[in-house]
Amino acid sequence: MDNPYVARCLCILIGYLFGVFQTAYFYGRLKGIDIRKHGSGNAGTTNTLRVLGTKAGLIVLFGDMIKCILAIVVTTLIFRGIHPDMIYLLKIYTAAGCVLGHDFPFYMNFKGGKGIACTAGYLIAFHWVYIPIGLAAFFIPFLLTHFVSLGSLCLYTSFIVALGILGQIGFFGMEQMLLLEMYFIAFLMTVLAFWQHRANIGRLLHGNERKTFLFKKKDTSAEHQAEEKNR
Questions:
Q1: Run means of pLDDT, 10 residues per run, the chain, 231 residues
Q2: What pTM, to 2 d.p., does this model score?
Q3: How far apart are CA 110 and CA 166, in angstroms?
């Protein structure tokens, strides 16, 4: 583990092993359904919320966040005394492994979720400064539009922008080559997130993306009111 390249590989592996725990899939099984056969077919927070409700969605959200937080805690405990000069780089390798495990679990034919809840967990465990940045980046566009996909993409965009700014002002205390490597891994994670959301991006551009409400929105249309009167 003294070898920094071995440490990188171990962090990816640890992250992947935590990431393959598919919270949405296992929670759905507890409720007697295979979440992949309902709604959008995605084993993630948004589809769980739409299919099973707000409580289920929040459980899956926190489950996917916690698995990434735990993975980073484990790697931090292992490597902070061995490679203190590159601990933030190792954290991002762990996060990348966790997202890969979540998105491509081997026991589900490599078809999982989209990795956004994992990323939220990663931001919490990476450094506290990302908590307010992440909350603002996700919830402002989401609450204004009710598009989860838009909030998710804004979260990733803010993550990589803030990472570059903070890195260049010396916030992480790493040498430039390690910073560039960290930026590159973050860039690949961002590309993967946008690729996983390519269908959502198409629907956003065409104005037919589905909105998501944390609580069911009451239908106040005239047709609905007339139907209620006739019951």
A1: 89 96 93 89 87 91 95 95 94 96 92 88 90 92 92 92 94 94 95 93 92 62 37 32
A2: 0.86
A3: 34
